[in-house]
Design brief:
- The structure is a homohexamer.
- Chain A has ten helices and 15 strands.
- Chain A is an alpha/beta fold.
- The first copy, chain A, has one domain: Ribokinase (UDP-N-acetylmuramoyl-L-alanine:D-glutamate ligase), CATH 3.40.1190.20.
- In chain A, the strands form three sheets. In chain A, strands 1, 4, 9, 10, 11, 12, 13, 14 and 15 form a nine-stranded mixed sheet that branches. A four-stranded mixed sheet of chain A has the order 3-2-7-8.
- Chain A is globular, with a radius of gyration of 19 Å.
- Chains A and E meet through strand 3, helix 2, strand 7 and strand 8 of A and strand 3, helix 2, strand 7 and strand 8 of E.
- Strand 3 of chain B pairs antiparallel with strand 3 of chain D.
Chain lengths: 331, 331, 331, 331, 331, 331
């Protein structure tokens, strides 16, 4: 089977231990992630061939980040070296009424300062049949937005399937243009998009009652190239207790997954990324769209119960969860 | 603004890691606290000027304890040095049906063996407008009770506002007198008191249904100098799940806060202290008594979700919780 | 009082830290257990004299395992040395929808390769009045099954009371015979047995509604030597939330304990073993069978809230839980 | 073989991690020791039957301390319960020019407040043939000095062999008498004593060049009951580098061990105690006094290379070191 | 006594645990430092009043950094808030032949992007009598160089004593000018300077044999305002073994300290800073220049034996080391 | 360039933390290694293409082991799955006079129970030009010895260069034949062999003074296919202090490297493997045999200063050490 390409910023994550606050922390746990790298890592564990494309500085922290990707089976050989620094973020896990906190330290990163022609997409897209990107990359800098546009053009020319995740982080968009100015022209290329829609509040506890069909139809009208609209719904009872489900719409039917009741949250970072990874895998390997959304929801539920940015789970583990919703011991 | 004085014993706390029992523990986490020090640390983080007054031995463990207070901005320059030992306690966190356990090792401490005239209150109370004490101090020894009495007299003479927290720990009162013999004469000085009342069982799960007005009136009659009665209500579903709210009574109206449902407890030690600290801050900075009690309850809810004796939170974080009761991620 | 003998395999357990997955783990926590060793450790902490009998290799890991038993007061002097290796298992704690995982690495262990005449039961059973075994031992190898049979014969000859725990682990039974071929002849010796019955599904959330009397009568008919049938019922809401209760049947009455709602599971491994240990203790020390089952259920609830294979609790702590079902702080 | 009795204070030790200073430490490692408990633990690991006698409070920290002794095989059943607190000390390991630091917090301990008739020595000395004590015990309080005197009398009456370790800690002797007033009458009972002598400076780097014969003769003259004088010599190049050797004198010959060059110190606490334990074991099991002192020096060298108060080593490991002075890998 | 001002960048340091390499590290230790902050922290622990001046972003990582300074007693109230990010560095400790590695990630920091008029030196220098700066600050950016120049002018106008540490890090100087272009005009203001001189190779193992008088005279000629030239000499036998000593020259005599043989290095970062801090303290408190250099060398030797950027030691500990060069246990 | 194949057992290593003994360890560090896997990991980090061939069971511990190899860039796709268990060993680091201890638990491993025809060498050797094996593999079982023989035959047929490391572990050879019976026929295939010779004691502190030429000539005569004989010399001053150097002989000249003085050992496991890896790299990339042996000695010196089985170093770091023998800080 051909390979999947994901493109975005590679981030080092420094998390506090257990439920410590940053102000209490004399040690930090080091993980690596970033939305598109997370998708790559999860897909590689599902058995797909994946290339992750980014730009990183040459130092031992980067080397550790690449080792982290390589251990999951992601190919890192086409990553560019250059620039000053790896993007970082500091993460303090919330508990019940105490919100999780993220301190981003990703400005001036090697990725943000990429040159728009730096990547040789012709080499990268050889043997590829899928390209995944997110709205975080064009948020980083004009050069990142331009590079994304070029990548999407090249991918479309080659008939590569394109999935995009809106992944809105308003406070990242500060290079001069707003997301509403840039995203539409990029989303035009998508075959599959994880959307945002003004009438869908995915953080409501009863999000699954939304009229996804109506919203989906409006989005398909706006983006006629798109064949599949994706929503994830998170009911935030507290920082420790969420519900989680997914919905997809193919222009005809709305498919909504089982709603998982995540009563003891372990780590919600990367939850949406793990959903997208599992969705891509499922679309490539299963016909039944209901099963596809169940697979994506189950896989990403496991992510919420796993520390770090990366969803550490196999296809078999996802299938077992779909079969058996309670967490029995296995011995 | 003038400064706040808190007075009491400084304690080292040795806690087991996670949910380990003491009998399993080969490592212990070191924190520092004590009811009055906790109030000081929290007030300093809210931006108040605070002096903590105590008596401590001269050694590196004490030095670490003082560093812990200083990092939060508490002034420690008026603490007395002398005596043999720092009070300690060992703490094993409970889980669901397994109760938390505290082993006190504070007898013969430098604080307990203070001389009643040792502290120069005239120096300490200069530039102060608030004095906070708790019922733990007079419980420690006759000298501590006498010193507290002297402090209260001096404070009253200077027109300093006085808040007192009954903070009953029956097994500490073993120097010859019972709390019912000593506390009334000390409470007479209080402008604000966190009370205990025979008809109010604050550990009932429906504590907020109590007749706080009736109880408050009885207390105000007994302590005519007092203007404000304070109650905290803890509904103990299990060691891992409590509800928490506060109530204040000013002789006219009962103000009860939102009842927080703390479904995944992190550390309840210092919960009452954090309530008192936030109450003092709020009384100094807000007019509306309903907001005052909401501020105190929200702040102390955050304490229950933070490890250690000290409430690590800012005014802004408390205000955010008051606005938004669920713990969303912030990035 | 005379001593209790338990017999089985001693296991080293390597667990991941917190909620880490094995694939994420660069450190593992070392504990020691095994069903019968767990029963011994718990009984010794309750104040009983207990000998644990097993076969172990001669090396420092074994030495550490024996130190672990000795610290609880278990006598290890009659353990045999020999063979190649200590049985091991790797344990990854589940969370909510993510199941716990056990990787057994106990084949070819010193215990499994025991010679059937290796143990001098006459020496061991001197001064003993109780023998406890489980269905795990005959599952390990033919020699283990034979040794168990010999032990049961010797115990019966001496009038020693015998308790057996079916403890079915189907994937351990792979030396040629199935548990249905071997267990009946071993269970014939039991005075007390923790049973399995085709009509009792103890993992149902409403398990306590089963007809334990009918099932118990059928078992007593099949095993006429038996006087007491034991069931534990686990309602698995998720890997983090179980209910737990016990039921015993003496041929006349069914005694079912309080059903504990374990909302935040710490470690369920050894839950059944701690129930059996507490049951044995209670049968030796209390008359009232209702209190016996309450004691066993309360003790084993504490095990679910304690890390490791061993139930670290005292008789006093169990009694306090029976009295007071919520987990208040004790100071 | 008959059993050995050691008597003294059981201490909890809280050490900083690695080379951290107390002022930097947010976690502390918990070990248990005390000079006489250390001797007991080491002897039990050598295979001797040992009883440790002390007085301790009833709480879970004590329970952990007893578990620590029991894991090594020390019998703790004759330890008295009573009093307020377990003696503690805080330990900061030195490095090169930075000295190790000990903060004692052992005043008012259960041991120090023992009643002089509290211990039933007749029961304890049954089946015993050796009694070991140190000069730390009489330093703690008058009651401790009196109890030691009574124990020595009782032991002498029963013909039990007595070993005593001067173990001078000047700052512990503050109950009213100095060590020079109390120690001589206690030392009169000793068959073997680890001595101090005004002309022997055991911390000199060339200590082994002392005239041990002359010093020993003077001591034997002063204590005619004594048969063996023991010296340990520590050459302190730095906190990280010491030399270590032992010398014994039987009134005829001086036997000095190999001088070990401990170039990378791990933990010197308990070094002298491990020497005494190994000496006692060797005197009971070997004839050749040169081998006895070699055994004691080798064993205690291993202690300097092992963390904690306790010497974790077997007879076989000591013998291997005597044979082979370099530390090759064993596989 | 009046206060001391130090000015420079505050850095977060993320170090690997023990001797792990960055590529192996899943956890990092968090400390805070920077050359001038280190000088401030050490001086505060010696009992001096110190203000640290810098510019930092507003987030919880900064807050933790300020807490770290405040715990030592440094006043942080005049630090400016603004800009994007706190400077960071990653530190991997070397061992013997494996060099220590530093990855700087301090570009675009809040300090580097300071406006040259941002600091109100008139307020800061009130009640100050000493100003300390290093060559790292002008290396960061033109604005930093300009700000340093302004500060030096203002300090000189007020008659404040000025000490400067050349502290050359060639790879930091990349904003357009080289250190040889900028440093001379800044050094003109210094009363005391820690110098570099082409003929003095301070990393030679026999550095103390240099002709410090000749070099010093040349420097005093070039910088006529200067009264004292400071050199530190490090003999690098390996990453684990250095020698360390200091030399000062007052235009008349060369004073060289004892040469410390640091056979087991703990952490050399901040070694030079701790020397400068102790030198400043000693110049303010002692007359004898030989004692001054001994004090500075002894204090900074302790820094090499203490983890983190900060020298955690008291005046008393330094004096004890001057008296007694070996690291005996203190109890 | 073509790829390198290494073949052997993959081992999980459980090491005690710091200098703890196994008997003290409640946590163990998990690493993965095995002689041939170590060679593969090091070569991959030097930039070579490497395949590691082995047989492993299917479980998450294995998966973690493979992730460990993949992170360094080793290809694991040709590893066979099957059998019961992964080989393990427990490692306790020695200190000075206390020897390191290894407890092997590798019997009955998936590798030991391989079928001799299980591996398809024709596929594996495609695109390969180098095969590396060690004497550990034929020691494990007859099947392993047979498989090694087949591999060597196949490699020789294809003209693949063969390097073998005698790597004698006498206590592993217990399947019926001794190493002297099996090794000679396997060594016949070697182009390069790391030898043992009766007259060369490589653990002598003056090993480099041996007559390597005479020994080498005898070995070349016995194994005429061989072109290069390799020796490593370890001078064991203590478990914490070794010297280390290498010698190669090509039938004409003896090339001996610089002798490294490893005064503070971090981890000597894998020292020989890292030498072989670096030697293979150097033989493929450099002409000068003196440089080859310097490269191998320098690289493996870094391994002794790095925790774990794997040599975490790059070509650049090795070259820097060859240039500069002391470990200066790099910033």
């Amino acid at each position: 089977m051909k390979k999947i390409i994901t493109f975005g910023e590679l981030l080092a994550r420094f998390s506090t231990i257990d439920s410590d606050r940053i102000k209490q922390s004399n040690h930090l746990k080091v993980d690596f992630g970033g939305a598109e790298a997370n998708v790559a890592s999860s897909l590689a564990q599902f058995g797909e061939k994946v290339d992750f494309i980014s730009r990183v500085p040459k130092n031992d922290l980067t080397e550790k980040a690449l080792m982290s990707l390589k251990q999951f089976g992601v190919n890192t050989e086409n990553i560019l070296f250059g620039g000053d620094r790896l993007g970082l973020y500091f993460y303090e896990k919330g508990e019940v009424y105490r919100s999780s906190k993220v301190i981003y330290d990703r400005s001036h990163s090697s990725m943000a300062t990429i040159k728009k022609d730096a990547i040789n997409w012709d080499v990268i897209f050889k043997d590829a049949d899928w390209f995944h990107w997110t709205g975080i990359t064009p948020a980083l800098s004009k050069a990142c937005a331009d590079t994304t546009f070029i990548a999407l053009q090249k991918a479309k020319e080659r008939g590569i399937k394109i999935s995009g995740d809106y992944n809105l982080r308003k406070n990242l968009w500060n290079w001069g243009k707003s997301h509403t100015e840039i995203m539409p022209e990029l989303l035009q290329f998508c075959d599959i998009m994880s959307g945002i829609h003004p009438n869908i509040d995915i953080t409501k506890q009863d999000a699954t009652k939304h009229d996804f069909k109506k919203a989906g139809d409006e989005m398909l009208e706006k983006y006629p190239n798109c064949k599949l609209i994706v929503f994830t719904s998170r009911g935030s009872y507290s920082a420790s207790h969420n519900t989680w489900s997914g919905t997809i719409y193919d222009g005809k039917n709305v498919y909504t997954s089982f709603k998982y009741d995540i009563t003891h949250m372990i780590d919600r970072v990367g939850g949406g990324d793990s959903f997208m990874a599992a969705l891509i895998y499922a679309l490539r390997n299963y016909e039944d769209l209901q099963y596809v959304v169940e697979f994506a929801a189950a896989a990403s539920t496991l992510k919420h119960l796993t520390k770090g940015d990366t969803n550490i789970c196999t296809v078999q583990e996802v299938e077992e969860l779909i079969q058996n919703k309670s967490g029995l011991i296995q011995r």
